[in-house]
Specification:
Layout: H1 8-11, H2 14-17, H3 21-33, E1 39-40, H4 43-50, H5 54-62, E2 66-69, E3 72-75, H6 78-81, H7 85-88, H8 96-99, E4 103-104, E5 110-111, E6 119-120, H9 121-132, H10 137-159, H11 171-174, H12 191-201, H13 203-220, H14 227-248
Antiparallel strand pairs: 1-3, 2-3, 4-5, 4-6
Helix pairs in contact: 3-4, 3-5, 12-13, 12-14, 13-14
Length: 249
């Protein structure tokens, strides 16, 4: 789940402090129990552990600090508490039935009321993932299967008997070029590798190192054994330099 810093601008406001102590305490527990998108699917368990009645949750909802969508509770200011969410957590929301009813205001606050120009959480995540990887996962699996079947069929026709398609043991031969969209068509990463890098680096930093690697490959003509390991090594080296400079300040 990761650390969720709590924004003091929310919890020290007059409106927040005007609520009952029970409602304030419940809010902190709800924030800590929410997933990366601010959705709490264990609200009953949290209420029970604190010994609070459902009326305390209703108080939070009436004061618009949480949104109630079916059985789920959503932290309205979740993104203000955790500003790195959008960059780090790049996967479709786990609860589409909630994400499709959550609209994002220009200030990053959730609302359940639509206004012109508002995107749902589902639409935002889907668009961002599509821009990074334009070929949907299911379609990619289908294309790989079709290519494998076509290769096997062609060998059978040529030789008159079925020939097994050899599997490579070299990681670089398993890498798939994402339709030439990643790093000017030069940077190759598997879905798992890209997901791991996005989780570690965030979108902006990931994009920066992909461009850096693409520029290196195109300008030098060199080949590297693993694009994934190269990006990860560069990032770790730069992080160590940044940390050392901060200690010297």
């Amino acid at each position: 789940m990761g650390k969720k810093p709590i924004n003091p601008e929310i919890t020290s406001s007059d409106v927040f402090l005007s609520m009952s102590v029970e409602a304030q305490l419940l809010y902190f527990h709800m924030v800590l129990g929410a997933d990366e998108d601010g959705v709490v699917n264990s609200s009953k368990a949290i209420l029970g552990s604190l010994g609070f009645s459902p009326q305390v949750l209703q108080e939070l909802a009436q004061m618009r600090f949480v949104l109630l969508i079916g059985p789920w509770v959503v932290i309205k200011h979740s993104r203000l508490h955790n500003s790195i969410q959008k960059l780090r957590h790049l996967h479709l929301p786990r609860l589409p039935e909630v994400a499709k009813q959550l609209y994002i205001r220009p200030d990053g606050v959730y609302t359940d009321h639509y206004e012109t120009g508002y995107q749902t959480l589902w639409e935002e995540k889907a668009a961002l993932l599509s821009s990074l990887n334009p070929l949907p996962m299911e379609e990619k699996r289908r294309e790989r299967k079709e290519r494998k079947e076509a290769t096997s069929f062609n060998k059978e026709v040529d030789t008159g008997r079925p020939v097994p398609v050899p599997t490579s043991t070299h990681e670089e031969e398993k890498l798939e070029l994402l339709r030439g969209e990643l790093g000017q068509g030069l940077v190759m990463l598997t879905d798992h590798q890209m997901e791991d890098l996005l989780d570690k680096l965030g979108v902006d930093v990931f994009d920066q190192y992909v461009k850096k690697l693409a520029q290196y490959l195109s300008s030098t003509g060199y080949q590297v054994r693993s694009h994934y390991k190269t990006i990860l090594r560069w990032w770790k080296q730069d992080s160590q330099v940044d940390a050392k400079q901060e200690r010297q300040i």
